[in-house]
Write a structure and sequence with these properties.
The chain has about 90 residues and is of the alpha+beta class. The protein is about 35% helix and about 15% strand.
Length: about 90
């Protein structure tokens, strides 16, 4: 069980453009993060093992890693994160 599953990041929509609010997870799997960054899952794992992943990674266990959504937004942009996570807003 992932301790982060019950948490969400609430993102306020642009009130001047009538965009609605939506929620993002605080962290995503390494495979999802790799897709957001334009990497294959295998390349992402290799970069983690080499300690060269482009954003900070949270080790949740020996083979389980999560990546903070805020770091991905800073690195790849909010629209890319929403696109890969298929968040409607």
């Amino acid at each position: 069980m992932d301790p982060l599953d019950d948490l969400v990041l609430a993102v306020r929509g642009d009130q001047s453009a009538d965009a609605s609010d939506y929620e993002l997870p605080p962290a995503v799997t390494l495979d999802q993060a790799s897709e957001i960054l334009g990497l294959t899952p295998a390349a992402g794992r290799e970069l983690v093992e080499a300690e060269r992943y482009p954003v900070p990674v949270i080790a949740m266990g020996p083979q389980t890693h999560r990546v903070g959504t805020a770091h991905l937004i800073r690195h790849a942009g909010l629209s890319r994160v929403r696109e890969v996570l298929r968040v409607q807003g």
